[in-house]
């Protein structure tokens, strides 16, 4: 059962924060107000103390969020995440890529029913929101055995209140058309649709990309090594707005085709380093003018936030540049580059930078307020550097999606969190009883209850 949502007034003012807008025209004003109305950013007012009578009246009728001493950013954008796998969180942390295919995709995935998958998507979405990630592209690479499977996955995204791109994969054309023509016919909704293209023979590629054109959907596909872009160009299917995932091992020519076609690149640096995909291609992408987005990828092996991904991206890209291991000689990346990857560049990769990714008047009010007074953060000398190098989900105080508050005072507005945790534990225990999942967890009900209750704090 979906939890009740806080509706609140149509006007919100986020008061007195240090705004890191990610928009050069707006800049990074200190002590500024961000005015929101009907889900959109109306104005960024630089001097929160200079209000006239009209401004005072506007503020009086708005919900007020005190952001003094805080950093105010656009919500983070995760360009590639297999959200259903949140139901298997941490179970594959030690896996290589081949082990992940064998265990998660081929063994555990088929044993999950619609309710399990919906719970995974919901937990992933809530974990994202808790960490200030307001937009996720859900690469739904789980077989849609029935319409019930598909509906459970999509319903969970709607229930969470997150902005999401549901990249439909592992299903048939009839079900794809049903979802597109039914609950995902609008491209202006909070949850929209794309296609997750699968590795396949030429005839299947032509059919899949033709379906995307017919339904006016963007595509997302994993590419690693070889000459996948050259092949797609030969087949005549390259389309602007396609999201290419990983890109490890692609040479400069392949990346140039990607850039020239109007595609975007999604890099998952944590998973690429630990599972063995190869060196995340930050330098190679920069050499052909690509600004990538970041992604958490698989929660069976990675955390659901982008703070860790930003730090990994910064460290990997800097190491490659400083030690010449990229073979490109790209400029030394900065923390600002990485924060842009997680916000405006991620929005651009998803073709949504006209709506989200920066605190710009007219855009959707997907906004995160980060506390800057906690012991692990204070004092702040360089706000951008602090976000990338020192902050984590514990610093996320308030989150808005399309102007609606989904996290306030460090707490997700979901009274059903303990119940969701218990359901997730039951799925874990069921998989363990069948012998398909090895667990190393406290087994007592009391331990599980304490852990579940702590999620709501």
Helix and strand topology:
Layout: E1 11-19, E2 32-37, E3 40-45, H1 53-60, E4 63-66, E5 70-74, E6 76-82, H2 97-108, H3 114-130, E7 133-140, H4 147-160, E8 163-168, H5 173-181, E9 191-196, H6 202-215, E10 219-223, H7 228-235, E11 243-246, H8 252-260, E12 264-267, H9 269-275, H10 282-287, E13 293-294, E14 297-298, H11 307-323, H12 335-341, H13 344-349, E15 367-371, H14 383-390, E16 396-401, E17 404-408, E18 411-412, H15 417-433, H16 445-454
Parallel strand pairs: 1-4, 1-5, 6-7, 6-14, 7-8, 8-9, 9-10, 10-11, 11-12, 12-13
Antiparallel strand pairs: 1-2, 2-3, 5-15, 15-16, 16-17, 17-18
Helix pairs in contact: 3-4, 3-15, 7-8, 11-12, 12-14, 15-16
Question: How does this structure look, described?
Answer:
The structure is a single chain. α7 crosses α8 and α12 (about 335-340) crosses α14 (about 385-390). The model is unreliable at about 445-455 (pLDDT under 50). Helices cover about 35% and strands about 20% of the residues. It is an alpha/beta fold. The longest helix is centred in the N-terminal third of the chain and has 17 residues, at about 115-130. Strands 1, 2, 3, 4, 5, 15, 16, 17 and 18 form a nine-stranded mixed β-sheet that branches. It folds into three domains: about 10-75 and about 360-410, Urease, subunit C, domain 1 (Roll), CATH 2.30.40; about 75-350, TIM Barrel, CATH 3.20.20.140; about 415-455, no CATH class. The chain starts with 10 loop residues before the first strand and ends with a helix.
């Amino acid at each position: 059962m979906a939890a009740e949502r806080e509706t609140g007034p149509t006007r919100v003012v986020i008061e007195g924060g240090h705004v890191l807008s990610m928009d050069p025209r707006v800049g990074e004003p200190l002590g500024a107000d961000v005015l929101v109305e009907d889900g959109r950013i109306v104005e960024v007012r630089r001097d929160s103390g200079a209000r006239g009578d009209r401004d005072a009246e506007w503020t009086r009728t708005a919900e007020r969020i005190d952001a003094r001493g805080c950093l105010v950013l656009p919500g983070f954008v995760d360009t590639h995440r297999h959200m259903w796998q949140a139901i298997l969180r941490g179970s594959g942390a030690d896996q290589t890529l081949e082990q992940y295919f064998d265990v998660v995709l081929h063994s555990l995935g088929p044993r999950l029913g619609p309710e399990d998958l919906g719970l995974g998507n919901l937990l992933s979405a809530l974990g994202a929101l808790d960490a200030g990630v307001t937009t996720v592209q859900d690469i739904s690479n789980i077989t849609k055995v029935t319409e019930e499977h598909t509906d459970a996955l999509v319903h969970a995204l709607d229930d969470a209140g997150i902005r999401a791109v549901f990249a439909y994969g592992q299903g048939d054309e009839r079900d794809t058309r049903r979802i597109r023509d039914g609950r995902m016919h609008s491209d202006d909704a909070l949850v929209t649709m794309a296609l997750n293209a699968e590795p396949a023979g030429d005839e299947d590629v032509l059919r899949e990309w033709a379906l995307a054109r017919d339904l006016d959907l963007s595509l997302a596909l994993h590419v690693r090594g070889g000459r996948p872009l050259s092949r797609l160009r030969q087949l005549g299917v390259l389309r602007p707005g396609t999201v290419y995932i990983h890109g490890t091992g692609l040479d400069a020519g392949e990346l140039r085709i990607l850039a020239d076609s109007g595609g975007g690149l999604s890099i998952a640096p944590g998973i690429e380093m630990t599972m063995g995909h190869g060196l995340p291609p930050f330098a190679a992408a920069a050499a052909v003018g690509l600004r990538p987005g970041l992604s958490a990828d698989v929660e069976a092996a990675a955390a659901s936030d982008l703070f860790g991904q930003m730090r990994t991206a910064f460290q990997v890209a800097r190491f490659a540049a400083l030690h010449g291991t990229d073979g490109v000689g790209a400029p030394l990346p900065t923390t600002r580059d990485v924060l842009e990857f997680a916000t405006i560049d991620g929005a651009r990769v998803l073709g949504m930078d006209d709506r989200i990714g920066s605190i710009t008047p007219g855009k959707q009010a997907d906004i995160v307020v980060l506390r800057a007074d906690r012991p692990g953060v204070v004092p702040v000398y360089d706000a951008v550097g602090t976000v990338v190098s020192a902050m984590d989900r514990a610093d996320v105080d308030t989150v808005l999606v399309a102007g609606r508050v989904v996290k306030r005072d460090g707490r997700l507005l979901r009274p059903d969190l303990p119940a969701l945790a218990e359901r997730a534990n039951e799925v874990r225990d069921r998989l363990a009883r069948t012998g398909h999942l090895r667990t190393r967890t406290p087994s007592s009900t009391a331990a599980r209850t304490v852990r579940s209750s702590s999620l709501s704090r």
